[in-house]
Amino acid sequence: MRHDATLKSLGEFGFIDRIARRAPDGSGVVLGIGDDAAAVAPSAGNLTLITTDMLVEGIHFDLAFCDAFSLGRKALSVNLSDIAAMGGTPRHALLSLAVPPSVDLALLDDMLQGMMQRAAEFGVSLIGGDTCSSPDRMVLSLTVLGEQLPERIVRRSGACPGDAVCVTGTLGDSALGLQLLKKGDRDGFLIARHLDPTPRVREGRALADAALPSAMIDLSDGLLADLQHILDSSSVGARLRMADIPLSPAFREKLPAMSEEARCLALSGGEDYELLFSVPPSRMSALRSVMQETGTPLAVIGVITETKRLAVADADGIELPLQTKGFDHFAGS
Amino acid sequence: MRHDATLKSLGEFGFIDRIARRAPDGSGVVLGIGDDAAAVAPSAGNLTLITTDMLVEGIHFDLAFCDAFSLGRKALSVNLSDIAAMGGTPRHALLSLAVPPSVDLALLDDMLQGMMQRAAEFGVSLIGGDTCSSPDRMVLSLTVLGEQLPERIVRRSGACPGDAVCVTGTLGDSALGLQLLKKGDRDGFLIARHLDPTPRVREGRALADAALPSAMIDLSDGLLADLQHILDSSSVGARLRMADIPLSPAFREKLPAMSEEARCLALSGGEDYELLFSVPPSRMSALRSVMQETGTPLAVIGVITETKRLAVADADGIELPLQTKGFDHFAGS
Questions:
Q1: How far apart (Å, rounded) are the C-alpha atoms in residues B167 and B213?
Q2: Cross-strand bridge partners of residue A299
Q3: pLDDT band for position B326 (cuts 50, 70, 90)
Q4: Which one of B10, B55, B141, B226 would you mutate to disrupt binding with A, by most A Cβ within 10 Å of its Cβ?
Q5: d(CA B169, CA B269)
Q6: Does B12 have pLDDT greater than 80?
Q7: What's the CA gap between B189 and B321, in Å, rounded?
Q8: In this complex, do A143 and B145 lie within 8 Å of one another by their Cβ atoms?
Q9: Which pTM does this prediction carry?
Q10: Rg (CA), chain B
Q11: Which of A234, A233, A159, A166 is nearest to A204 (CA)?
């Protein structure tokens, strides 16, 4: 580590230049980094979708077990996942960054490189942001703009009784991966799922373009908590089948599938960034075709009910007690 | 202060509901707070302008001398000022907030109320954001979207030799106000200018709609630093006349106008949030009409030069030594 390679030596505007040089112009960008505001044009007929997420060092990430490159990728991914959950296509990103002046530039470069790599993978361009110092911990705030035709945008509020509850991929991997990281493990499938989740952007867009989901959300806070958002917005309930909740081979290898801990992680573990959505029975065969085309694992895990209640049944149809809830930032421990 | 009135008791989603109830739907908002992303439609033919700013407790604000209501107003104002500097109209805002769980709800309510009041004054609607906990200090990240027709957007890059350098209002007030706050003063014009700056949104829009400025920026880092951004972007220089730099009566009352300290604050003091812009000589009479219509104090403080150098001359035409620069977040002390 070179002593002069800090933000203090580079200065705020040197650092902004450094970011700007790595941010190639994207389509729809009229004015990128370097003015008082960026200017962009949505594609004809499209609405602009906007989402924002803040990540605080020591709360959302710990550089002791999250390398800076992965952090950069993940910070963008979680916002891309929100756009995916609306059925939109992400286009532009803004990055605000509060950094202790002593932070090593190499770390920031790694983080930016990770973010830019992820952005390039999804055709997203960095168009602006803000940099400032922070007395102690790093804070990142990402804003992502996306777009979709108004009639294709998928909300949380459209779930109807009888709709199938569907989910992409497997659940609980990220939460189990975090447990392993805290125990000292440093690689493997579960840890990769935690450090570097893949947002289901292509899947979300394909589902929306085919008008399949009646409601959709991405899984950031855990299955039960996020499903509850759909249920609240749609004024419905749901009945899930525990045995149908998809678990990865790596997850099953670590935990007996029907153990209390496995259930807890699968139902309430956060940060899987899979898509959770409801689909009317009449569209189920079209759904299977679309998921096959995108090569996406699909699980049908339950049904939307008229009764405004969320229940999970075991393999014998007996209702499981649900004590676990999703992550609440202010709940404390 | 009630002991239960904390974020911890309300929970993350309770707090989001609380914000959402205070955010009335605005025009152009298809989907506001409460889904994975917001959805908005720009007015026909307009580009979307986007700007974002992060405020860290202990760096950008100190609740020891900035009340929460003013903080909420100012956090939004500084972003509105960026949209004003593009000649745009602000429309929508997103607020991300990292808060220590022990923070008193009354403080957050005051802050939100200040922000919402300012938003209402400028026809801006809050459409989304993020809330999370922070171990120690509060961090706010505001993103504001605005709009303007593409041909009317004013950039930093259009200043030409011979253009007049113009500024709205008076300079140095905010920096002097901050000094007074630190000395224990709590009110008066200068302190109000620091705690509750008025973004020049109407003026910026009027200037842009009349196609008057060749380049424009808002004064956040100080006159010399912000003018340098215009000069760099436009590949030109400027010669300013110290005697023409506008100072308020309150400022002059505190400091002899030609003292070293007065010069330093007027040239390099940040956070006045006035507009600094260049105007071709042929448009000067139109400029005076527009400024009269909006009732805005206007000062012509110098001229753009071909030589890429920024100079300030005293009343006798003798060049002043410039040792002062604008605020650099990473420069340290």
A1: 11
A2: A167
A3: low
A4: B141
A5: 14
A6: no
A7: 30
A8: no
A9: 0.92
A10: 21
A11: A166
Kindly state the average pLDDT of the residues B29-52. 91
Residue B132's beta-bridge partner residues?
B98
Average pLDDT, chain B: 91
CB contact under 8 A, A146 and B37: yes
* Cβ separation A52–B85 shorter than 8 A: no
Q: How far away is chain B from the Cα of A12, in angstroms, using its nearest Cα? A: 6
Interface A–B counts its CB contacts (< 8 A) at 238
Q: What is the ipTM of this complex?
A: 0.89
Domains of chain B: 7-152 (3.30.1330.10), 164-313 (3.90.650.10)
Q: What is the mean pLDDT of residues A39-63?
A: 93
Question: pLDDT grade, residue A2 (50/70/90)?
Answer: very low
* Sign, Cα dihedral of A266, A267, A271, A274: positive
- Say if the Cβ atoms of B143 and A30 lie within 8 Å: no
Look up residue A310 and give its two tokens: 């969320």
Determine which helix (DSSP H) or strand (DSSP E) holds A90, and give its type and residue range.
strand A89-99
> Percent of chain B having pLDDT more than 70?
92
Question: d(Cα A212, Cα A210) in Å, to the nearest integer?
Answer: 5
Helix and strand tally (H, E) in chain B?
Answer: 11, 12
pLDDT, greater one: B238 or B101: B238
